[in-house]
## 1
Amino acid sequence: MAVTLDQLEEFLKQKEMNYERDDEENLIQTGIGDSENSGMIFIRSLDDGKNFLLQLEPIKKDKSGMFDIDFSHQNINKVLMFLMYKNYSYKHGKWEYNFNDGDLRFSISIPLEDAIMTFDQFDTLIRVCYSSLDEIGSISYILENGEIPEEKSGEEKMAEMLRKMLSEIEGKKSDSDDEGI
């Protein structure tokens, strides 16, 4: 067997992630997120461990439910075009959209056959899911404005990330100032 729920559970423990295991569904679910976006991850070992499936379902910003998109939305074609472009640029995983119920998810499927999944591989796939959440802001923008946002350069993305980290550090520093430290 290439990967089992027991092994996947151990990987989640190593990452110190909270999770729920459902042996009847052969499934482990966990969540990821930050102050901007969050999602539920569903992890499955299929076909006696020969196939691994990891699916991320984004959650609405207001946490009221899953981030679904009605097929009749006026900007659905632009969202789908954006998702196709993103799928082309990803090394692992792809965005999927269900036309019947509006489900949007990011999915990674790996045929392991007789290979054994390592913690490093699992960790990489979790990080890929986490980074895919960044697209939710762009998808929301497209839905609201009907325009596909321009790609930021690597330097612009890094500068934005550093500004965000600095503001979080400054926020924590001002909180500790109240304690006289």
Note: Helices lie at 5-14, 76-89, 119-132, 135-145, 154-177.
## 2
Amino acid sequence: MNRVHQLNKSMTYVPYKSFWFFGVEQAIRDYMFAYNDWYQYRATEHARQNTFYTSRIADRLRVHPACGARIDSKDTSVYVIGVDWFQPFKYTNHSVGVAFLKCLDFEDRFQGVGTNVFPLMIIQGPKEPKNIWVHLRRIADEFARFGPSSEGFEVTSAHSGDKFQHRIILGGILGDTPAW
């Protein structure tokens, strides 16, 4: 619900400071793996050329004690979190933040495909929070809970109907600095 303030006999709606979190597990299981086109784009062989798995960053993750050999398992995927802010209203200064999830299992040419970007969180304004970690902590907790040293969570491929335990690795956080 919105609070209503009356200024100069005009009504102004001021949103509560809240945010919506849709969940990493839900985005992956219920949207990504349930979407047949997404699964067809997903590289099933991690050694495939022009994917994240042939990059220097992937090589660094392979020697990381927490990720190790799990990074090359077909049941494990590397994801990045993106965070961006935008102004939804034309005549007022009000920022809304969005955190989104993107899978790196795709060939480079499919990285920007709309079916590979899913919203995880919407952070309501009117201003950007001073501490974004309060919001991102929920995302980080899910990555820790379902990471390479865990059992993961069960997913079903819309493409094949196969079920398996999916483990997730956080490959990074994308964002920009605010305009000055």
Note: The chain is about 20% helix and 30% strand.
## 3
Amino acid sequence: MFSRISMWRPTLFTAIIYFVIGCLMLFMPGLVATYFLKVVGIIGLLYGAYTLLMYFKNDEDDNDRHLSDMIVAVIVLIISAALIIIPNEAIKLVIAVGGIFLILDGLMKIPSALNTLKYIKGSVTVISLSVGVPIFLGIVFMFLPLQTYEVIAMVFGAGLIIISILDLVSLYYLNKLLKANR
């Protein structure tokens, strides 16, 4: 069907990949996160082990040997091991930290919002939303981190599915157009 548009094969391939990943993220967000974090953890373990090996391989007098390299390698090894052993706790921690940053963002906007209200006597809706939404979302992120992750993953998965469908429809009509102009 798509033989006339071989230049679009990468789009066809990515559309299929997006669709599969999107379905996984939409219907199994927890599973996707667990495996993703385990893969990141394995990569981190390899990087940390390599960095540590290179630290001990170099002579003490070598300019390439720095104590900071060993410290970073140990930290990466610990974090990577945690990602592999307890991925759900890692997700909770990352989402909760994101929630804290959202709350701080909302709180830091309060002085600017109050200042703006002195000069603008109109609607306060936009200003209230710019302060309230980050604080509200931050609280939700902190107290419901796994559910928050699942919603984010599901929305992202749905987006990937939509992109893949749009790509496939575009390829279909492009193929049809090329066939008609032949």
Note: The chain has a mean pLDDT of 86.
## 4
Amino acid sequence: MRNTQLGSLSKTVLVVAVVCGMLVAPTAAQTATTVTFDSSSETVDGSTTVSLLATDVPADSSIGAYELNLTYNSDVVSLSVTGTDRYDVSTETTGSSGTVTTTVVGYTGASDGDGGNTTLATVTVNSEGNSGDTTLDVSTVETFSDTDSNAVGYSIGASLGLSVDTGDGGGNGGFVSGGGGG
């Protein structure tokens, strides 16, 4: 009797393991959405513009809303962030000197989308008159959801390396970006 119960239990565990493996296997092949910039490094001569992107968005998960934080050295650069034809944005900057954080909130009323790559916002980086190198980082993502308010999985891409040269000998003109967090 004991061997029969143990055999039935073993078969049940095996069936459950196979079914779980079939459910997990397809998700392992999917590419995660990445929140990143359209460039890994930029030289700022007065100002430069970069795009904040969501790459590899699943076709069934068009991004509807996000809230994220950008960090940078405000002694070297300042930012202005504007929306796109799809996203309206609002911003709030915390701090006034050294490392500061700009919170960007974006949303859309559109309920459709194709997935793939989408521009979340346009970021204009302005020189603050001090030569030097800094990074612009997506430091945290508080909200990242589809048009039905369901959370969308993501990773944070590489930092944007910024080199500012105001002609006073600072800035190396060839800054190489570092990695992002996540």
Note: Helices lie at 2-29.
